[in-house]
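Is magnesium ion placement plausible here? Inputs below.
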Amino acid sequence: MTPREATTGAAMRLSRVTGDRRHRRRLVELGFVPGADVSVIARGVNGGLILALGDARVAVDAGTAATLLVEPSHD
Amino acid sequence: MTDVRPAKTLLAKSCCDEHTGTVDERAPRVALAGNPNVGKSTLFNTLTGARQSVGNWPGKTVSVARGTWRASGGDVTLIDLPGTYSLLPGSPDEALTRDVLVDHGMDGRPDAVVIAVDAANLARNLYLLAQVMETGVPLVVALTMVDVARARGVRVDADRLSALVGAPVVPMVPRRGEGLDALDRAVAEALANPRPPAVPPLGDHVEPALAALAAELPAASTARFPARWLSIALITGEPVPGVPDGTAALARDLGAALVDGDDLGDPEVLVAEQRYAWVHKVIADVVTRRGDTRTTWSDRVDRVLTSRWSGAPIFLAVMWGVFVLTTKAAAPLTAALQALIDGPVAGAAGGALTAIGAGAPVRGLVVDGIIAGVGQLLGFVPLMAIMFVLLAVLEDSGYLARAAFVVDRLMRLIGLPGRAFLPLIVGFGCNVPAVAGTRILADRRHRLLTGLLVPFVTCSARLTVYVLVASVFFGDAAGTVVFAMYVLSIALVIGIGLLLRRTLFRGMAGEPLVLDLPPYRLPTLRLIGTQTWVKLRAFLRTAGGVIVATVTLVWLLSSIPVGQGTFGDTPVEHSVYGVAARTAAPAFAPAGFGDWHNSAALLTGFVAKEAVVSTTAQTYSMSESAGDGELAPALRATFDRTSGGHPLPAVLAFLVFLLAYTPCMATVAAQWAEMGGRLTLFGIGMQLTVAWLLAVAVFQLGSLFW
Ligand SMILES: Nc1nc2c(ncn2[C@@H]2O[C@H](COP(=O)(O)OP(=O)(O)OP(=O)(O)O)[C@@H](O)[C@H]2O)c(=O)[nH]1
Ligand SMILES: [Mg+2]
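Reply from A.M.:
I modeled the complex. Tokens:
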């Protein structure tokens, strides 16, 4: 699933980033790497999300959120 | 890698920043690198006593600044680099930082690097640190924001980190000046005994490929670039100048073999993941957390400020506040300043000049030219100051980043990021601070596009003309006409924005939103004060001369007689100015207002819309205070005549022209300062074209019906 389907506040683990090369590179540099801890902090208009990525907070639009694949994490 | 290197010239210049003074070319150089928004500029300012712009927004520093740090071990030239997430050049700023760090062929390469690492956001900061370590440059890690980390229950073991990085780690709070002595000692030591840091391992998979490539690197390349950095760059497919094609091809093959079988495989991403693997190992080793650090109060605030329901209303309320403050609060201050200049100052100067026996022309030049010009310039000061204070508060608090998120979708329609909303809103008050406000945009192209759109935002000075003209011609419907001008203004911003985005700014839009949100911070008075002062000074310096010069020029032109009269004592109609207006008038005939009174008013409007009403009165040889009683019939008669019996469409066309053409000389001056002469002139041409076409269309279509 993508963070858009995830419950707000639930702990998740990033499994994969899709999209074109430039896009993936940009996200990877910010720390969106497989295994990273991700959770949804807030939901804005039009599907935009504020994500917690470890200690960082990153705002992404709906399109970007859809390129992130996450799974529930159990710890 | 680019072979065009802005850094070269930037660093080679004896001084890059007006605030930093000259630096000693022989002093050792220390570059300040790090992620955006981690306190580099704060540190730089504290160490050098300079005033680099600091702000709670990633990407605040967009060019290099240099200053002298009087360290205990002797003077050091400190270079404040733009913040970057990585050394792969994604933008010119990043390319600059990277070239400074890796290219030995470049002048001004630093002797050591202080890398600022945000203790409250370690992962991403250590990722950049890993890349800097790969360059082998002697390092000192400044562990900033330890106060924020502590407040969140995060403790970083500096000694352990130092052992893993192979470089000194100095915990500090740049904002409060804590840790400066320790940094001083660490840098002195790094300069005296330069040692390369440790090398973050990239895993069993990547390392053998790097080793295979390292054996093939030509000596010329390894003399210019650090060997490990070079191997990694080449394997990830990055072009590096001066590397033989054969070596580059070999590297590409090695890279491709690393990701064989993965459909999304990319050596660059693979290497980045490996660096993060190292980062997470380091974090596990040096960080201890106390309590639940997952949801902070900042997150709870975010839930409200950005939510689907409350995000937009809060945003609109804040913007409304900005609008009211920049229009209403500044007005009395501006009026008082102007009254002071027009009254006592002009009077005293006039008296003094008479006393020393200066003739009427000299008095006119000084009083009506220069002093009036300075008066107009000063009139902008309260407005600009309020605007800059508001910008600083919004930015430093961290709200601006949230606001950008809230309106991102809307602004994206015209290819601009959410933050561009702010200058446009400010533009309704006054275009001058709005143009200067485009600086909050990190991307140059976004700044330029916004700067070109601002003049189409109808400012409050234009409102005075709408009101006068509309009430003369439209009676009870005047309000509707004025409102229509505002609607048209918004439509123009969107329309021109779409047009520019499809033409001049093609390929700019479509960048998805991925925005690092800074934590909320209490803005400090000192920070807001210095920021406002620095920006205000820059405005006065760049725009001041233009404004004073233009006002003086207009006075001069309207004082030089053509045919009859004497200098300084001639009716406007018979001055160079009047003649110029008369020459321009026929151009407006297709729009239905081709008369010299109108073109004189528009000519003045080029200087300042505030002066349009008084010029109109002046051209009819009556004082402004004569009021509607006398001015209205004269205006009606003019429009009746020029429009061939269709005065209303002609008046509308006049108003539309007034809305769309160049707002004022001060805006032009501000644009000149922000985006350079070429684009400013292009903007003027565009405004005149749009204004003329629209005015003609309004009159021609309108006269079919009225
Ligand atoms: N709490 C706290 N805030 C700090 C500290 N140092 C800097 N700040 C604040 O952090 C924000 C960013 O500081 P800057 O100095 O502009 O950061 P920068 O690294 O130069 O940012 P860029 O120019 O965008 O790369 C500002 O709001 C500072 O006031 C610190 O040690 N503690
Ligand atoms: Mg900075």
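Short version: The beta strands of chain A are 12-17, 37-43, 49-53, 56-60, 68-72.
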